[in-house]
Amino acid sequence: MNCWADRSPLHEAAAQGRLLALKTLIAQGINVNLVTINLVSSLHEACLGGHVACAKALLENGAHVNALTVHGATPLFNACCSGSAACVNVLLEFGAKAQLEVYLASPIHEAVKRGHRECMEILLANNVNIEQEIPQLGTPLYVACTYQRVDCVKKLLELGASVDHGRWLDTPLHAAARQSSVEVINLLTEYGANLKLRNAQGKSALELAAPKSSVEQALLLHEDVVSDWSPLHDAAIHGRLLTLRNLISQGWPVNIITADHVSPLHEACLRGHLSCASVLISHGAQVNGMTIDWRTPLFNACISGSQDCVNLLLQHGAAPHPESDLASPIHEAAKRGPLSLMQLCRLRIRKCFGIRQHHKITGLLLPEDLKRFLLHL
């Protein structure tokens, strides 16, 4: 049975890590489960201070390993608070519960909050639910993002934590967007975080980021942002290479699109601006991006008659035969000429099929005259 005291010599010895004094007091008959008015035991104190030898001595003499304070904290919670992996291990050896009811103070959430990755990993290895969601805190990943604990975020994701499971409708990405760590944003997006999800207030992660902050720029770089128009589009239209480079260096996303899904690469290719197209592609522009009327950058390059842009796009994986014949590059090249551009398209299409697969060209949804052209008939 617990005994009550404001604070005992045993508490003091445990809190200060004085092992000899602690053993002497126990030998004199001091109750190891003596608690304060807040139900704090000497074991709580030893674990909060990370004093593993004192904690072990108390446990060996009958200290309650799962004792609760008035705030619902166990000695294991305190060990995670201090970041003492040694104390965590000793407590688990003596039967500490690694995961408690949701209304009690959660050891894993405390370990993550304070960035104690080793303690977190020990708990997970002891079957703590990696997706445990506490109403006021969320999941461990959500807490790690809230407190910008990059090491914990990375390890949780590596161990399979759900990248979009946070606190109710608030995702870990929402939590990260409110903070300042671009590294956390990048980790979440690399693991497939959904940038379109909205929280209970109807906000996306991007809408929570501070305007013009590095976090906002990082989010913009990871999604196709729809806008009426952008300075990047204008630079691509007019072939202003220096302006284009400057905008990209400032963080403008190269895949920003209009309401009609027109990208800066579409515009550069439509005007035959090879250098602008090359810079956009080198920074990750999507070579097969489609407008709402099925036009690809390659289609636009065929409109402009720019063989250089056509070559560039094909070298970077542009599809010569589109998903829809409503905007077929070779049809457009045939319509507009010159002959050399038609020949270039034919060469690239034949190359995509391979010399042993040319017969499959007959299966394309193309007019017969174009099929004969592709087959050199």
From TrEMBL:
What are the record keywords, sorted?
Answer: ANK repeat, Repeat, Ubl conjugation pathway
Q: PROSITE patterns, alphabetically? A: ANK_REP_REGION, ANK_REPEAT, SOCS
Write down the Pfam families for this protein, in alphabetical order. Ank (PF00023), Ank_2 (PF12796), Ank_4 (PF13637), SOCS_box (PF07525)
**Has the keyword Repeat been applied to this entry?**
yes
Q: What Gene3D superfamilies does the entry give? A: Ankyrin repeat-containing domain, SOCS box
Give the signal peptide range: none
Question: Could you tell me the superkingdom of the organism this chain comes from?
Answer: Eukaryota
The SOCS box domain sits at 325-377
* Annotated metabolic or biological route of this protein: Protein modification; protein ubiquitination
What are the ranges of the ANK repeats? 5-37, 38-70, 136-164, 171-200, 227-259, 260-292, 293-325
Q: Which PANTHER family match?
A: ANKYRIN REPEAT AND SOCS BOX PROTEIN 11, SOWAH (DROSOPHILA) HOMOLOG
Q: Which family is it part of?
A: Belongs to the ankyrin SOCS box (ASB) family.
By what name is this protein known? Answer: Ankyrin repeat and SOCS box protein 11
- Specify the taxonomic lineage: Eukaryota, Metazoa, Chordata, Craniata, Vertebrata
